[in-house]
Amino acid sequence: MRFFSKLKDIWSHEELRNKIGITLGLILVYRIGSFIVLPGVNSDVLAAQMDALGGGGLGGILSLFTGGAFTRASIFALGIMPYISASIIIQLMSIAVPTIQKMQKEGESGRKKITQYTRFLTIAICLVQAPGYLKSTVVSVPGAVANPTMFWWFSAVMIIVCSTLVIMWLGERITDKGVGNGISLLIMIGIIATFPQALIQEFMHPDSTLYFFLVEIAFFLIVIGISVALVQAIRKVPVQMAKLQQANGGMPIGAGARSFIPLKVNSSGVMPIIFAQAIMFVPLYLTQSESLQQNEFLQSLSDFNGVAYNVLFFFMIVAFTYFYTAITVNPNQMADDLKRQNSFIPGVKPGRPTSEFLDNILSRITLPGAIFLGLVAILPAIVFRLGLTHSQSFAIFFGGTSLLIMVGVILDTLQQVESYLLSRHYDGLMKSGKMRSRSQSPVGGLGG
Protein backbone atom coordinates (compact mmCIF):
# COMPACT_ATOMS: atom_id res chain seq x y z
CA MET A 1 0.00 0.00 0.00
CA ARG A 2 2.85 2.38 0.76
CA PHE A 3 4.20 1.89 -2.77
CA PHE A 4 0.87 2.85 -4.35
CA SER A 5 0.60 5.78 -1.95
CA LYS A 6 3.94 7.12 -3.20
CA LEU A 7 2.82 6.73 -6.81
CA LYS A 8 -0.30 8.74 -5.95
CA ASP A 9 1.83 11.48 -4.38
CA ILE A 10 4.07 11.60 -7.46
CA TRP A 11 1.05 11.82 -9.74
CA SER A 12 -0.44 14.62 -7.60
CA HIS A 13 2.74 16.69 -8.02
CA GLU A 14 2.11 18.38 -11.38
CA GLU A 15 5.67 19.57 -12.00
CA LEU A 16 7.15 16.21 -11.07
CA ARG A 17 4.54 14.38 -13.16
CA ASN A 18 5.46 16.47 -16.21
CA LYS A 19 9.18 15.96 -15.68
CA ILE A 20 8.81 12.19 -15.39
CA GLY A 21 6.65 12.17 -18.52
CA ILE A 22 9.29 14.12 -20.47
CA THR A 23 12.03 11.80 -19.20
CA LEU A 24 10.15 8.63 -20.18
CA GLY A 25 9.25 10.07 -23.58
CA LEU A 26 12.86 10.97 -24.43
CA ILE A 27 14.07 7.57 -23.18
CA LEU A 28 11.50 5.92 -25.48
CA VAL A 29 12.90 7.88 -28.44
CA TYR A 30 16.39 6.67 -27.51
CA ARG A 31 15.28 3.02 -27.30
CA ILE A 32 13.42 3.20 -30.62
CA GLY A 33 16.50 4.68 -32.29
CA SER A 34 18.67 1.82 -31.00
CA PHE A 35 16.63 -0.60 -33.15
CA ILE A 36 16.85 1.42 -36.39
CA VAL A 37 19.54 -0.31 -38.47
CA LEU A 38 21.86 1.58 -40.82
CA PRO A 39 20.75 1.46 -44.47
CA GLY A 40 22.22 -1.44 -46.42
CA VAL A 41 23.21 -3.48 -43.33
CA ASN A 42 21.91 -6.97 -42.50
CA SER A 43 21.63 -6.95 -38.69
CA ASP A 44 20.78 -10.67 -38.54
CA VAL A 45 24.23 -11.55 -39.90
CA LEU A 46 25.88 -9.33 -37.28
CA ALA A 47 23.79 -10.91 -34.49
CA ALA A 48 24.85 -14.40 -35.60
CA GLN A 49 28.50 -13.30 -35.62
CA MET A 50 28.21 -11.90 -32.07
CA ASP A 51 26.58 -15.11 -30.84
CA ALA A 52 29.43 -17.12 -32.37
CA LEU A 53 31.99 -14.96 -30.55
CA GLY A 54 30.09 -15.30 -27.24
CA GLY A 55 29.53 -11.56 -26.77
CA GLY A 56 32.70 -11.13 -24.69
CA GLY A 57 35.50 -8.59 -24.73
CA LEU A 58 35.28 -4.84 -24.89
CA GLY A 59 32.96 -5.16 -27.86
CA GLY A 60 30.46 -6.79 -25.51
CA ILE A 61 30.90 -3.89 -23.07
CA LEU A 62 30.22 -1.39 -25.84
CA SER A 63 27.10 -3.31 -26.77
CA LEU A 64 26.08 -3.29 -23.10
CA PHE A 65 26.36 0.51 -22.83
CA THR A 66 24.33 1.03 -26.01
CA GLY A 67 21.55 -1.43 -25.21
CA GLY A 68 22.58 -3.76 -28.05
CA ALA A 69 22.74 -0.96 -30.66
CA PHE A 70 26.47 -1.61 -31.19
CA THR A 71 25.95 -5.20 -32.36
CA ARG A 72 22.84 -4.35 -34.40
CA ALA A 73 24.67 -1.67 -36.43
CA SER A 74 22.01 0.78 -35.30
CA ILE A 75 22.11 4.49 -36.07
CA PHE A 76 22.81 4.86 -32.31
CA ALA A 77 25.67 2.33 -32.48
CA LEU A 78 28.25 4.56 -30.78
CA GLY A 79 25.81 5.59 -28.04
CA ILE A 80 26.81 8.42 -25.75
CA MET A 81 30.43 7.27 -25.33
CA PRO A 82 31.94 9.83 -27.80
CA TYR A 83 30.42 12.59 -25.67
CA ILE A 84 31.81 10.96 -22.51
CA SER A 85 35.26 10.76 -24.13
CA ALA A 86 35.06 14.43 -25.13
CA SER A 87 34.06 15.40 -21.58
CA ILE A 88 37.07 13.50 -20.19
CA ILE A 89 39.45 15.28 -22.54
CA ILE A 90 38.03 18.71 -21.71
CA GLN A 91 38.21 18.04 -17.95
CA LEU A 92 41.80 16.86 -18.25
CA MET A 93 42.64 19.94 -20.30
CA SER A 94 41.11 22.13 -17.59
CA ILE A 95 44.07 21.20 -15.38
CA ALA A 96 46.79 22.17 -17.85
CA VAL A 97 45.22 24.73 -20.24
CA PRO A 98 44.88 28.26 -18.73
CA THR A 99 42.18 29.27 -21.23
CA ILE A 100 39.81 26.54 -20.06
CA GLN A 101 40.66 27.27 -16.41
CA LYS A 102 39.65 30.88 -17.04
CA MET A 103 36.36 29.73 -18.60
CA GLN A 104 35.56 27.67 -15.51
CA LYS A 105 35.83 30.81 -13.38
CA GLU A 106 33.53 32.85 -15.62
CA GLY A 107 30.37 31.25 -14.25
CA GLU A 108 27.44 30.47 -16.55
CA SER A 109 28.96 32.07 -19.65
CA GLY A 110 32.16 30.08 -19.21
CA ARG A 111 30.19 26.87 -18.69
CA LYS A 112 28.34 27.44 -21.96
CA LYS A 113 31.61 27.91 -23.84
CA ILE A 114 33.05 24.70 -22.38
CA THR A 115 29.86 22.83 -23.29
CA GLN A 116 30.13 24.12 -26.87
CA TYR A 117 33.77 23.00 -27.13
CA THR A 118 32.75 19.59 -25.77
CA ARG A 119 30.15 19.28 -28.51
CA PHE A 120 32.64 20.15 -31.26
CA LEU A 121 35.11 17.63 -29.84
CA THR A 122 32.33 15.02 -29.76
CA ILE A 123 31.83 15.51 -33.51
CA ALA A 124 35.58 15.11 -34.12
CA ILE A 125 35.70 11.89 -32.08
CA CYS A 126 32.66 10.52 -33.92
CA LEU A 127 34.28 11.24 -37.28
CA VAL A 128 37.21 9.06 -36.18
CA GLN A 129 35.28 6.30 -34.40
CA ALA A 130 32.45 5.85 -36.93
CA PRO A 131 34.65 4.66 -39.86
CA GLY A 132 36.63 2.44 -37.47
CA TYR A 133 33.43 0.89 -36.14
CA LEU A 134 32.05 0.28 -39.63
CA LYS A 135 35.27 -1.30 -40.85
CA SER A 136 35.97 -3.52 -37.83
CA THR A 137 32.46 -4.54 -36.77
CA VAL A 138 30.20 -4.24 -39.82
CA VAL A 139 32.05 -4.47 -43.14
CA SER A 140 34.48 -7.10 -41.82
CA VAL A 141 31.58 -9.57 -41.32
CA PRO A 142 30.87 -11.42 -44.58
CA GLY A 143 27.38 -10.71 -45.88
CA ALA A 144 26.65 -7.87 -43.43
CA VAL A 145 26.84 -5.20 -46.16
CA ALA A 146 25.85 -6.19 -49.68
CA ASN A 147 27.52 -3.30 -51.51
CA PRO A 148 29.81 -1.03 -49.41
CA THR A 149 30.28 1.73 -51.99
CA MET A 150 31.84 5.11 -51.29
CA PHE A 151 28.37 6.66 -51.08
CA TRP A 152 27.37 4.04 -48.51
CA TRP A 153 30.46 4.79 -46.41
CA PHE A 154 29.81 8.54 -46.51
CA SER A 155 26.11 8.23 -45.68
CA ALA A 156 26.70 5.67 -42.90
CA VAL A 157 29.35 7.84 -41.22
CA MET A 158 27.17 10.95 -41.42
CA ILE A 159 24.15 9.08 -40.02
CA ILE A 160 26.15 7.75 -37.07
CA VAL A 161 27.67 11.16 -36.30
CA CYS A 162 24.32 12.97 -36.49
CA SER A 163 22.61 10.25 -34.44
CA THR A 164 25.23 10.57 -31.70
CA LEU A 165 24.51 14.30 -31.57
CA VAL A 166 20.81 13.46 -31.23
CA ILE A 167 21.64 11.23 -28.23
CA MET A 168 23.67 14.05 -26.71
CA TRP A 169 20.71 16.40 -27.21
CA LEU A 170 18.34 13.87 -25.60
CA GLY A 171 20.61 13.62 -22.57
CA GLU A 172 20.81 17.39 -22.18
CA ARG A 173 17.03 17.76 -22.50
CA ILE A 174 16.47 15.10 -19.82
CA THR A 175 18.83 16.95 -17.48
CA ASP A 176 17.17 20.33 -18.12
CA LYS A 177 13.52 19.36 -18.45
CA GLY A 178 13.25 15.90 -16.87
CA VAL A 179 14.38 14.04 -13.77
CA GLY A 180 17.94 12.87 -13.15
CA ASN A 181 21.18 13.25 -15.08
CA GLY A 182 20.30 12.65 -18.73
CA ILE A 183 23.65 11.24 -19.88
CA SER A 184 23.85 8.79 -16.97
CA LEU A 185 20.21 7.77 -17.43
CA LEU A 186 20.76 6.90 -21.11
CA ILE A 187 23.75 4.72 -20.20
CA MET A 188 21.74 3.02 -17.44
CA ILE A 189 18.78 2.35 -19.75
CA GLY A 190 21.09 0.67 -22.25
CA ILE A 191 22.48 -1.56 -19.48
CA ILE A 192 19.08 -2.49 -18.03
CA ALA A 193 17.77 -3.34 -21.51
CA THR A 194 20.25 -6.25 -21.78
CA PHE A 195 19.76 -7.60 -18.25
CA PRO A 196 16.65 -9.80 -18.86
CA GLN A 197 18.34 -11.53 -21.80
CA ALA A 198 21.50 -12.15 -19.75
CA LEU A 199 19.41 -13.57 -16.90
CA ILE A 200 17.60 -15.96 -19.24
CA GLN A 201 20.86 -17.09 -20.87
CA GLU A 202 22.35 -17.92 -17.48
CA PHE A 203 19.26 -19.83 -16.35
CA MET A 204 19.02 -21.79 -19.62
CA HIS A 205 22.73 -22.65 -19.75
CA PRO A 206 23.25 -26.44 -20.04
CA ASP A 207 25.58 -26.51 -17.01
CA SER A 208 23.26 -24.44 -14.80
CA THR A 209 20.96 -25.95 -12.19
CA LEU A 210 18.12 -24.37 -10.23
CA TYR A 211 20.08 -24.52 -6.96
CA PHE A 212 23.18 -22.98 -8.57
CA PHE A 213 21.05 -20.25 -10.18
CA LEU A 214 19.39 -19.35 -6.85
CA VAL A 215 22.82 -19.11 -5.19
CA GLU A 216 23.92 -16.78 -7.99
CA ILE A 217 20.88 -14.56 -7.47
CA ALA A 218 21.52 -14.44 -3.69
CA PHE A 219 25.14 -13.43 -4.29
CA PHE A 220 23.97 -10.89 -6.86
CA LEU A 221 21.64 -9.28 -4.30
CA ILE A 222 24.50 -9.12 -1.76
CA VAL A 223 26.68 -7.32 -4.31
CA ILE A 224 23.84 -4.86 -4.96
CA GLY A 225 23.61 -4.17 -1.21
CA ILE A 226 27.36 -3.57 -1.04
CA SER A 227 27.17 -1.20 -4.02
CA VAL A 228 24.32 0.77 -2.41
CA ALA A 229 26.31 1.03 0.84
CA LEU A 230 29.33 2.28 -1.12
CA VAL A 231 27.32 4.94 -2.93
CA GLN A 232 25.55 6.20 0.21
CA ALA A 233 28.33 5.93 2.81
CA ILE A 234 29.16 9.27 4.43
CA ARG A 235 31.51 10.66 7.08
CA LYS A 236 29.72 13.16 9.34
CA VAL A 237 31.85 16.15 10.34
CA PRO A 238 30.20 17.93 13.32
CA VAL A 239 29.49 21.64 12.93
CA GLN A 240 28.55 24.11 15.69
CA MET A 241 26.42 27.16 14.94
CA ALA A 242 27.48 30.21 16.94
CA LYS A 243 25.05 31.70 19.49
CA LEU A 244 22.90 34.55 18.23
CA GLN A 245 23.23 37.81 20.22
CA GLN A 246 20.49 40.37 20.76
CA ALA A 247 21.00 43.94 19.70
CA ASN A 248 22.68 46.41 22.10
CA GLY A 249 24.73 43.66 23.76
CA GLY A 250 21.75 41.74 25.12
CA MET A 251 21.70 38.12 26.23
CA PRO A 252 22.06 35.36 23.66
CA ILE A 253 18.80 34.40 21.97
CA GLY A 254 19.57 30.71 22.28
CA ALA A 255 22.27 28.11 22.28
CA GLY A 256 24.11 27.44 19.03
CA ALA A 257 22.59 24.72 16.90
CA ARG A 258 24.51 21.55 16.05
CA SER A 259 24.67 20.07 12.59
CA PHE A 260 27.19 18.22 10.44
CA ILE A 261 28.79 18.16 7.00
CA PRO A 262 28.15 14.83 5.23
CA LEU A 263 31.34 14.00 3.32
CA LYS A 264 30.69 11.10 0.99
CA VAL A 265 33.13 8.20 0.99
CA ASN A 266 32.57 8.10 -2.76
CA SER A 267 32.08 11.76 -3.63
CA SER A 268 32.76 11.18 -7.33
CA GLY A 269 29.90 8.70 -7.81
CA VAL A 270 30.14 6.56 -10.94
CA MET A 271 32.09 9.08 -13.00
CA PRO A 272 35.54 7.48 -12.34
CA ILE A 273 34.25 4.17 -13.72
CA ILE A 274 32.69 5.84 -16.77
CA PHE A 275 35.91 7.77 -17.42
CA ALA A 276 38.14 4.72 -16.97
CA GLN A 277 35.88 2.55 -19.12
CA ALA A 278 35.87 5.12 -21.92
CA ILE A 279 39.67 5.14 -21.96
CA MET A 280 39.80 1.33 -21.91
CA PHE A 281 37.91 1.37 -25.21
CA VAL A 282 41.02 2.83 -26.89
CA PRO A 283 42.90 -0.52 -27.15
CA LEU A 284 39.85 -2.03 -28.85
CA TYR A 285 40.00 0.56 -31.60
CA LEU A 286 43.80 0.34 -31.91
CA THR A 287 43.75 -3.43 -32.36
CA GLN A 288 41.50 -3.01 -35.39
CA SER A 289 44.47 -1.60 -37.28
CA GLU A 290 46.27 -4.26 -39.33
CA SER A 291 49.67 -3.03 -38.12
CA LEU A 292 48.66 -3.41 -34.44
CA GLN A 293 46.57 -6.57 -34.59
CA GLN A 294 49.53 -8.73 -33.57
CA ASN A 295 50.59 -6.49 -30.68
CA GLU A 296 50.37 -8.75 -27.62
CA PHE A 297 50.22 -5.87 -25.13
CA LEU A 298 47.26 -4.20 -26.85
CA GLN A 299 45.56 -7.57 -27.25
CA SER A 300 45.87 -8.19 -23.51
CA LEU A 301 44.23 -4.81 -22.84
CA SER A 302 41.34 -5.83 -25.09
CA ASP A 303 40.59 -8.94 -23.02
CA PHE A 304 37.81 -8.06 -20.57
CA ASN A 305 38.78 -10.99 -18.32
CA GLY A 306 42.53 -10.54 -18.68
CA VAL A 307 44.86 -9.69 -15.81
CA ALA A 308 46.48 -6.72 -17.59
CA TYR A 309 43.11 -5.18 -18.46
CA ASN A 310 41.71 -5.46 -14.94
CA VAL A 311 44.88 -4.27 -13.16
CA LEU A 312 45.05 -1.18 -15.35
CA PHE A 313 41.30 -0.65 -15.01
CA PHE A 314 41.56 -0.84 -11.20
CA PHE A 315 44.36 1.73 -10.90
CA MET A 316 42.67 4.08 -13.38
CA ILE A 317 39.49 4.01 -11.27
CA VAL A 318 41.46 4.84 -8.12
CA ALA A 319 43.25 7.71 -9.90
CA PHE A 320 40.06 9.09 -11.43
CA THR A 321 38.28 8.90 -8.08
CA TYR A 322 40.86 11.23 -6.54
CA PHE A 323 40.86 13.44 -9.64
CA TYR A 324 37.08 13.82 -9.82
CA THR A 325 36.77 14.33 -6.05
CA ALA A 326 39.38 17.10 -6.25
CA ILE A 327 37.47 19.00 -8.96
CA THR A 328 33.99 18.54 -7.46
CA VAL A 329 34.56 18.98 -3.70
CA ASN A 330 36.35 22.18 -2.68
CA PRO A 331 37.40 22.29 1.01
CA ASN A 332 38.33 25.98 0.69
CA GLN A 333 34.81 26.85 -0.44
CA MET A 334 33.33 24.77 2.36
CA ALA A 335 35.48 26.57 4.94
CA ASP A 336 34.44 29.95 3.52
CA ASP A 337 30.76 28.97 3.64
CA LEU A 338 31.07 27.95 7.29
CA LYS A 339 32.80 31.22 8.15
CA ARG A 340 30.14 33.33 6.40
CA GLN A 341 27.37 31.44 8.21
CA ASN A 342 29.10 32.06 11.56
CA SER A 343 29.65 28.32 12.04
CA PHE A 344 32.72 26.29 12.95
CA ILE A 345 33.97 22.77 13.50
CA PRO A 346 34.53 22.17 17.23
CA GLY A 347 38.23 22.26 18.07
CA VAL A 348 39.27 23.67 14.67
CA LYS A 349 39.95 27.34 13.92
CA PRO A 350 37.93 28.95 11.11
CA GLY A 351 39.52 29.69 7.75
CA ARG A 352 42.57 27.84 6.48
CA PRO A 353 42.79 25.35 9.41
CA THR A 354 39.20 24.29 8.70
CA SER A 355 40.01 23.84 5.01
CA GLU A 356 43.06 21.69 5.81
CA PHE A 357 41.07 19.67 8.35
CA LEU A 358 38.33 18.91 5.79
CA ASP A 359 40.90 18.14 3.10
CA ASN A 360 42.66 15.62 5.37
CA ILE A 361 39.38 13.87 6.20
CA LEU A 362 38.40 13.81 2.53
CA SER A 363 41.75 12.28 1.54
CA ARG A 364 41.49 9.57 4.21
CA ILE A 365 37.95 8.50 3.34
CA THR A 366 38.52 8.72 -0.43
CA LEU A 367 41.32 6.10 -0.40
CA PRO A 368 39.25 3.17 0.94
CA GLY A 369 36.31 4.35 -1.15
CA ALA A 370 38.44 4.38 -4.32
CA ILE A 371 39.95 0.95 -3.59
CA PHE A 372 36.54 -0.54 -2.85
CA LEU A 373 35.12 1.03 -6.00
CA GLY A 374 37.92 -0.48 -8.06
CA LEU A 375 37.44 -3.93 -6.53
CA VAL A 376 33.72 -3.91 -7.24
CA ALA A 377 34.45 -2.77 -10.80
CA ILE A 378 36.71 -5.77 -11.56
CA LEU A 379 34.50 -8.26 -9.69
CA PRO A 380 32.81 -9.57 -12.90
CA ALA A 381 36.14 -10.75 -14.29
CA ILE A 382 36.99 -12.44 -10.98
CA VAL A 383 33.59 -14.14 -10.83
CA PHE A 384 33.84 -15.41 -14.41
CA ARG A 385 37.45 -16.63 -14.10
CA LEU A 386 36.53 -18.55 -10.93
CA GLY A 387 33.62 -20.21 -12.74
CA LEU A 388 30.95 -18.74 -10.46
CA THR A 389 28.84 -17.90 -13.54
CA HIS A 390 28.41 -19.76 -16.81
CA SER A 391 27.53 -16.80 -19.03
CA GLN A 392 29.85 -13.90 -19.76
CA SER A 393 26.86 -11.60 -20.36
CA PHE A 394 25.48 -12.35 -16.87
CA ALA A 395 28.89 -12.06 -15.18
CA ILE A 396 29.09 -8.45 -16.35
CA PHE A 397 26.28 -7.54 -13.93
CA PHE A 398 28.11 -8.94 -10.86
CA GLY A 399 29.40 -5.61 -9.72
CA GLY A 400 31.52 -3.92 -12.33
CA THR A 401 30.73 -0.88 -14.38
CA SER A 402 27.18 -1.93 -15.20
CA LEU A 403 25.92 -2.53 -11.65
CA LEU A 404 27.62 0.52 -10.13
CA ILE A 405 26.22 2.77 -12.84
CA MET A 406 22.73 1.35 -12.34
CA VAL A 407 22.87 1.74 -8.54
CA GLY A 408 24.36 5.22 -8.65
CA VAL A 409 21.99 6.57 -11.30
CA ILE A 410 18.87 5.03 -9.73
CA LEU A 411 19.72 6.44 -6.28
CA ASP A 412 20.47 9.87 -7.73
CA THR A 413 17.19 9.90 -9.63
CA LEU A 414 15.24 8.77 -6.54
CA GLN A 415 16.86 11.56 -4.53
CA GLN A 416 15.65 14.13 -7.06
CA VAL A 417 12.15 12.66 -6.98
CA GLU A 418 12.21 12.75 -3.19
CA SER A 419 13.28 16.40 -3.15
CA TYR A 420 10.23 17.30 -5.26
CA LEU A 421 7.95 15.34 -2.93
CA LEU A 422 9.38 16.98 0.18
CA SER A 423 9.03 20.43 -1.42
CA ARG A 424 5.26 19.85 -1.47
CA HIS A 425 5.26 18.43 2.08
CA TYR A 426 4.77 14.85 0.97
CA ASP A 427 6.54 12.02 2.76
CA GLY A 428 9.84 10.99 1.21
CA LEU A 429 10.53 7.71 -0.51
CA MET A 430 12.19 6.29 2.60
CA LYS A 431 10.47 5.54 5.92
CA SER A 432 12.68 8.05 7.69
CA GLY A 433 11.36 10.82 5.46
CA LYS A 434 14.68 11.47 3.76
CA MET A 435 17.44 9.42 2.23
CA ARG A 436 20.67 9.13 4.17
CA SER A 437 22.79 10.86 1.57
CA ARG A 438 20.48 13.89 1.59
CA SER A 439 21.12 14.82 5.20
CA GLN A 440 20.90 18.51 5.90
CA SER A 441 24.18 20.37 5.70
CA PRO A 442 25.08 23.99 6.50
CA VAL A 443 27.37 23.93 3.48
CA GLY A 444 25.48 24.29 0.23
CA GLY A 445 25.87 21.56 -2.35
CA LEU A 446 27.08 18.82 -0.08
CA GLY A 447 23.84 17.47 1.11
CA GLY A 448 23.17 15.38 -1.95
Question: Describe it for me?
Answer:
The protein has 448 residues and is mainly alpha-helical. It folds into two domains: 10-204, Preprotein translocase SecY subunit; 205-245 and 255-448, SecY subunit domain (Preprotein translocase SecY subunit, Orthogonal Bundle), CATH 1.10.3370. Helices cover 66% and strands 5% of the residues. It contains 20 helices and five strands. Strands 4-1-5 form a three-stranded antiparallel β-sheet. Strands 2-3 form a two-stranded antiparallel ribbon. Strand 2 (244-245) and strand 3 (252-254) form a beta hairpin. The radius of gyration is 24 Å and the shape is globular. The model is unreliable at 436-448 (pLDDT under 50).
Strand content: under 5%
Q: For the record, what is the CATH homologous superfamily label of the largest domain?
A: SecY subunit domain
Compute the number of strand runs.
5
> What integer is the average pLDDT?
78
Fraction of residues in H or I helices: 55-70%
Number of domains: 2
What's the CATH first level of the largest domain?
Answer: Mainly Alpha
Q: Give the strand line-up of the largest sheet.
A: 4-1-5
Q: Describe the biggest sheet?
A: 3 strands, antiparallel
Pattern of helices and strands? HHHHHHHHHHHEEEEHHHHHEHHHH
Cα shape = globular
Terminal-residue CA separation: 28 Å
CATH topology of the largest domain: Preprotein translocase SecY subunit
Number of helices: 20
Low-confidence stretches: 436-448
